[in-house]
Specification:
The complex is a heterodimer. Chain A is an alpha/beta fold. Chain A contains 14 helices and nine strands. Chain A has two domains: 153 residues, P-loop containing nucleotide triphosphate hydrolases (Rossmann fold, 3-Layer(aba) Sandwich), CATH 3.40.50.300; 97 residues. Chain A has a five-stranded parallel sheet with strand order 2-5-8-1-9. Chain A has a two-stranded antiparallel sheet with strand order 3-4. In chain A, helix 10 crosses helix 11, helix 10 packs across helix 12 and helix 13 crosses helix 14. Chain A is elongated and about 85 Å long. Chain B has three domains: 125 residues, no CATH class; 37 residues, no CATH class; 185 residues, Rossmann fold. By secondary structure, chain B is α/β, with parallel strands linked by helices. In chain B, 50% of the residues lie in helices and 11% in strands. In chain B, strand 4, helix 10 and strand 5 form a beta-alpha-beta unit. The chains are: A alpha/beta, B alpha/beta. Chains A and B meet through helix 2, helix 5, helix 6, helix 9 and strand 9 of A and helix 2, helix 3, strand 1, helix 9 and helix 13 of B.
Chain lengths: 307, 406
Amino acid sequence: MTMTPVPGSIDDTLALLKAADYVADRPLATVLYLALKMQRPLFLEGEAGVGKTEIAKVLAAGLNRKLIRLQCYEGLDVSTAVYEWNYPAQMVEIRIAEAAGQTDRSELASDIFSERFLVKRPVLEALEPDLAGPPVLLIDELDRADEAFEAFLLEVLSDSQVTIPEIGTIRADAPPIVIITTNRTREIHDALKRRCLYHWVDYPSAERELDIVHLKVPGAGAALAQEVVAFVQALRAQEDLFKAPGVAETLDWATALCELDQIALDPATVADTLGVLLKYQDDIARVQASELTKLLDQTKTKTAAKL
Amino acid sequence: MIATETADPGGKLVDNVVHFARLLRSAGMPVGPARVVDAVQAVEAAGISRRDDFYWTLHATLVSRREHDVVFQEAFEQFWRPRGLLEKMIELMSPVAPPRDTEPKAKAGSLRVAQALNAGRERTSETERPEIEIDARQTVSGSEVLQQKDFAQMSADEIAAAKVALRSLVLPLDTVKTRRFVPAGRGRRIDMRRSIRQSLRGGGQSMTLAFKKRAEVAPPIVALFDISGSMSPYSRLLLHFLHALGERRRVTTFLFGTRLTNVTRQLRMKDPDEALAACAGSVEDWSGGTRIAAALKDFNKKWSRRVMHGGPIVLLVTDGLERESDEDLAHEMDRLHRSCRRLVWLNPLLRYDRFEAKARGIRAMLPHVDEFRSIHSLDTIADLVEALGRDGSTAETDPRKWIRAA
């Protein structure tokens, strides 16, 4: 298997994402290109559902690399994220050594704590050489892990290496492509951010969102797609929504309306399917109570002008 | 010849990026030398061919928070645009460009930006923080008196004494279990790694079990301080208390009057007086009016998802005298209550013996708090410390008592 080279320019990066069905804007392509070129981790921050995780998946697919995913959660520690010793096997080994009459302690210790008994977890796995090229390591929703966990990542992020006290330092020949995502439910420490390139993934513009809907929900007609995007954009422009719908919600909604054989938006269907777009009862109640017809009218006039 | 021509703008480019980084730093962005090196490398990697690419290249390396986006944009426009510097760079860096002898005047531009920045700095320093005016009627004060004295009626000396007393308070030792493990002498969970290492020390002959237990941390505190006119003396002293509290646990502090300001970074300074001065410098509405509902809404929307992790205790310090819509206030209080472990409302109005929950704002807020306590003297702060150390509210501080009474 030959290694797919990383893109050589920002335009190439844009083309790579496009080929893998990801509609990216130029700022994102720039920062992605730089991350690949400078071999630095990429730190993606943004609201839920704007396609942060998808970037890593698309990158792995586009470059033909293995995708290693580390989903973060509170209490995540070294033994689940980096490495773990295989205790049962170690205990058996000790018994065998005992039975064989081996008495040299230091020899036994170096036997027991050797790579043979090391269980590799995602981070260590990502440092292993791969025929297809360095893998893509996706550290997803880092803000879900507690602060203590961030410190485990510093070494691997800055030097692509992991130090195991019993063995020593394991270093990657070629650094993996690291993508970190967070929803900003808390601030990540500056020490970690400093080692990465930072990018805020924003909601897409109407134009780009329409492209995304066309690409991902081909079943939706041109008129429906226009209206869906215009409606969602109008919703996002509302100041007092607690959580604005993300791109993922737009796609879900477009798919839902397709399944219902809708060719255009009508108030009744919108009211019934609002739960696909908005996930807070307050928001749903607010939109249903007063603003639904107003929003729909806006949407209709806007799309009529375009068509 | 050509080599020197291309090398020269490279050197200028480095200079300019460094200058630009310095500008960002003086505008309050944390741009260290390592980032500047990154930025130069990034520009070299991406090349300069388009303005927006150059913009995003610098953005990727120099910006690490969304809030700095605007600052960066402003600085970029100011620094690179007026002199046409970037255009010249693009021309010089592209291989076919004819050599030019017009040198970008780095000095004049950076001077102008520096002047603009300095002007801004002078303006902020002019707005001095208002002094607390207290009539020093009381001349003798024993510590007993001090303990029970209302903060708002203290003389300057008494305030100084109160600050010392606040620093020497024994801080609460409440902890919650985390999902992380630490070694323990005894317990029910076996720490295999330590057990095996210990057994190897003895040649693997015998195995003594090592144990681990759940780690415990002090739960974080999120404090929301009303700094309107009547509240300001209380808030100032409580900030000292919070500063002390911040040494042991994560404390996030917001001040609100007519708008909400996050002063967590400022409070992190080692010296409490410096920290307070920094707070005062960054907040414009000390001792102004208050809009509780608007401030809470702002907090819920912009900050709660960012600072309310780890099950925090929320300390809300306000008199609850809101003149605007009550419905919004109840709604926002409800949301705040639902996103924290415990919501403690500290209200100095409770110092009056005949206080009743009659005001509409107070009635709207009371159903959504876990504890309702006074906070007007050192004694009440000591009570708060004790209350933080245990769980749940007592009959004394149960908000329902006040609702029933009213």
